[in-house]
Design goal:
about 20% strand, 6-stranded parallel beta sheet, about 160 residues, about 35% helix, alpha/beta
C-alpha cells in the first residue's frame, strides 16, 4: 500500500461516488482517504464498494482546516486540477508525498482548499466544464503506478 499518495475528498454527497473513490483507492494501492465532512458524513454505498471499504483507512474531518493540519504533519503536498495548471500527470511522480484533492459534485473544490493547494494539474477538457474526477484520475493512476514500479524495483 502507498503511504506517499493519499486522496482528499471535500464534502461528497452521493454515496455511489464515495464508494467509487474507495474502490479506486483499493485498486491503486492508496491506503488512506481523507474525508472533509462539514455538513454530512461521507457515505459509501456498499453495493458499489463491494467490501473494499474494509481495507481503506478513511480519516474524517469536520473542516478543511483540520484536514490541512493533518496533511501538513505528514508532509503531503496538495494537488488539485485547475484550468491554468502547469503539472502533467507524469509530474506527480516527482512529488515525494502527494494528496490529490477531489471537490464535491456541486461546488467542486472548496475555496479554502483551492487556496492552500501546492501544485495544480491542468484540466484536459475543452468543453469548459470542470471534470476534477477525470483529470485527477489520470494523475492518480500515473503517480500510483510509477511509485509502485519504483518500489518493486527497489528504488
Amino acid at each position: 500500500r502507498l503511504g506517499s499518495v493519499t486522496l482528499v475528498v471535500d464534502a461528497l454527497h452521493d454515496p455511489h461516488n464515495g464508494a467509487a473513490l474507495v474502490r479506486s483507492c483499493d485498486a491503486f494501492g492508496v491506503q488512506r482517504m481523507h474525508a472533509i465532512e462539514p455538513v454530512e458524513a461521507l457515505a459509501v454505498a456498499t453495493t458499489v464498494s463491494r467490501g473494499t471499504q474494509k481495507w481503506i483507512d478513511i480519516l474524517r474531518y469536520e473542516s478543511a482546516a483540520a484536514c490541512l493540519r493533518a496533511l501538513a504533519l505528514t508532509g503531503h503536498e496538495l494537488v488539485a486540477t485547475h484550468p491554468d495548471g502547469a503539472l502533467l500527470p507524469a509530474d506527480l511522480a516527482s512529488i515525494p508525498r502527494v494528496a490529490l484533492v477531489m471537490g464535491n459534485e456541486r461546488e467542486g473544490i472548496a475555496p479554502e482548499l483551492r487556496e492552500q493547494r501546492d501544485e495544480r494539474q491542468p484540466e484536459d477538457h475543452d468543453d469548459g466544464e470542470h471534470h476534477d474526477d477525470e483529470s485527477l484520475g489520470g494523475g492518480w493512476r500515473s503517480c500510483a503506478r510509477r511509485r509502485a514500479v519504483r518500489r518493486c524495483r527497489g528504488r
